[in-house]
Amino acid sequence: MPLFVIRRQIDRSLSDTELEALTYRAIGASAEFPSIRWHRSYHWQEPDALRSTCIYEAPSEEALRKHASLCAVPFSEIREVEEFIGEDHVVPDEN
User: Does the structural domain 3-81 have CATH classification 3.30.70.3090?
Assistant: First the structure.
């Protein structure tokens, strides 16, 4: 199944309670879309926003857009990506 990256920007003025509510909405939306699988997320702070990049497995970009809209967590971009170093990649031992 294709992999996608979602780039998000979340307003830093949100309270901890509001940020927690965003997380619960994302979890709830995932229950509505069993064919979409979250892999991992990365986030970082900037002066004006909390930014994140989330990796999902989904049947299509359209399905992931519907999922993201239901989450009601703002996103700026969704792109299909390819993994080029898989989990089975082994770094050779140099000894």
Answer: yes
